[in-house]
Structure formats: C-alpha cells, structure tokens
Design a protein that fits this description.
With 288 residues, the protein is mainly β. The protein has two helices and 18 strands. Strands 3-2-4-5-8 form a five-stranded mixed β-sheet, with no helix packed on it. A four-stranded antiparallel β-sheet has the order 1-11-10-9, with no helix packed on it. A hairpin with a 5-residue loop joins strand 12 and strand 13.
Length: 288
C-alpha cells in the first residue's frame, strides 16, 4: 500500500471517528436538556398512593397529598378514588386547570389508559399513574429542589469500540420475561428476541422489552455501584432487517430513579446482569 493511500484511509477513519464522537456528544447534550425540561424527571417532586375514598391535596400537613410549601393553598382539592377511578374536585375558590381550562370536577384518565389527564395549578402538575394493582398521584413541580440543585450529567469518554454490532435473534412467537421494579413488584413484559454480542473474546446476551416500538434494554454490568448507578442502566436500540442490532453503550443512561426518589423504575432482569464491566455511557449522578 502506498503511503499516500494509507494517509487517505487514516484521514477517512479519523473523520468518521470525529463525526461519531460529535453525534454522541450532541445526543448527550439533548438528553440533559430533556432531563431539565418542564416535564423532565427533575421536576418529579412527589408520588402519593391513593387510598379508597377521599385523598386531600394541598400544602397543609394533614393532607394525604402534601404539596410543597407555598406552591398551593392549604387545600387545593380532593381526589375521590374508588375501584380504579379517580375524580378530582377543586376546593371552593381555587383555580385548577386541565388543558389550559379551569375545572371544578373531573374524572381523570390514568397512564394505564394512554396519556394521563393532567391537572395544573401554578408551578404544579398532577396526574394519576397505575403500577401493578395500585394507583398514585404523580406530582411535577417546575420549581422543584431537585431541578434547582441539579449540576450536570457525567459520562465515560466516548469509545467507538463499544458501539457493538450484535446478532439479533427474534423469538417466534415472542415470549414474556419477568421484569422487577423498585416497588418490589414483578411484571411480565413481552420480549421480541435476544441480542447476542461479543466483547473481549466472550459472548454475552441481552433480552429487551418493547417500549414505544423500540427495543428497550434494562441491564446491569460490573461497573454498577462503582462507576455507574448501582441498580443498572437503560439502552434503546432498533433491530435491523439484516438480523443485527446496534448496541451503542456510549448512549447507555441512568434510570430516572438516579435523579428523583419519586420514579418507579424497572430493574434489570436476572439474565441481563452481565459479568463484565461495560465502561461506556453514563456515570453515577452525585447529588451536591
């Protein structure tokens, strides 16, 4: 090979590496923007499990749903919960909105039925979620302490070797796998196949679930509890028509539970706990 041809190949590889690094850094910048957005995880400031009957919401300490001091009246309203259905009734003289319009009484759709109905009052947003057989009110606050005190996300340096081309083996038919969560519950989730990849001479396998039409990998490796979040990390990917899937571990990221105590994160299934250190992606977030 001539020296000039070798130089061209080298420069092409450097350009490719530079483009990949730039794209990855931009992806990480946008991930931080989403985290800090008005509907990002840093605004999640409360999780209140509903009990049958009346659940009062407001800043007074005796309320079942205690809102941040100064964010709302002592009694904002009540959530009347019965048999999986929550109806909100605003307190007299209090303005609570849904889709920008004031409401006095409203039966709320939970996230189990699609996009949940949201209630807004000042800097606060509330909506109903379902986890297992239980329902809760999730609270967002645009003035949350978590958002005010947030510093930045931290990452391993970008390493293109850890953008891994894995073999994709679909399950026909798809099977279900057990996915635990931090609430101590276990859900049976559809798993469309398995990604098989090699790293440092050894073979590993990861089973995803489906989320929003994409492969969603919940995994843990031997960096967990040392350099990375102890419970594990998340990674999205798309299966290619050629029987491969790109596992870009440089885009592996922390679950919401690493940023707010009010998330209900899934945990890695046993088969996705890798006996190897994947030194790529997001590092542990240190609250300061």
């Amino acid at each position: 090979m001539s020296s000039s041809l070798a130089s061209v190949i080298c420069l092409t590889m450097l350009a490719s590496d530079s483009t990949y690094v730039a794209e990855t850094l931009e992806w990480r910048r946008k991930a931080e923007e989403r985290l800090k957005a008005d509907d990002g995880w840093l605004t999640v400031a409360g999780l209140f499990w509903l009990t049958q009957g009346i659940n009062r919401a407001g800043t007074a300490e005796e309320n079942e749903i205690t809102l941040p001091p100064g964010s709302a009246p002592p009694l904002l309203g009540v959530f009347d919960f019965s048999n999986g259905h929550a109806t909100f009734r605003a307190a007299s003289g209090v303005v609570v909105k849904s889709q920008g319009k004031p409401i006095s009484t409203m039966t709320l759709k939970s996230d189990a039925e699609g996009e949940p109905d949201e209630l807004g009052a000042g800097s606060l947003t509330m909506f109903v979620i379902k986890r297992g057989d239980r329902y809760a009110v999730r609270l967002r606050d645009k003035n949350s302490r978590l958002l005010r005190e947030f510093t930045h996300r931290s990452w391993f340096p970008v390493d293109e070797r850890l953008r891994v081309i894995a073999q994709w083996i679909p399950y026909k038919p798809p099977k279900h796998i057990s996915v635990p969560n931090i609430l101590g519950e276990t859900e049976q989730e559809p798993c469309p196949g398995v990604a098989v990849f090699r790293w440092n001479g050894a073979e590993y396998r990861l089973e995803p679930v489906l989320e929003d039409g994409r492969l969603f990998f919940i995994f843990k490796d031997r960096t967990a509890g040392k350099q990375t979040y102890p419970a594990g990390r998340f990674l999205y990917a798309d299966a290619g028509a050629d029987g491969t899937v790109v596992l870009d571990f440089n885009r592996a990221y922390n679950p919401p539970c690493s940023f707010t105590p009010y998330a209900t994160c899934p945990l890695p299934p046993r088969q996705n706990q890798l006996p190897v250190a994947i030194e790529a992606g997001e590092l542990t977030y240190h609250h300061e």
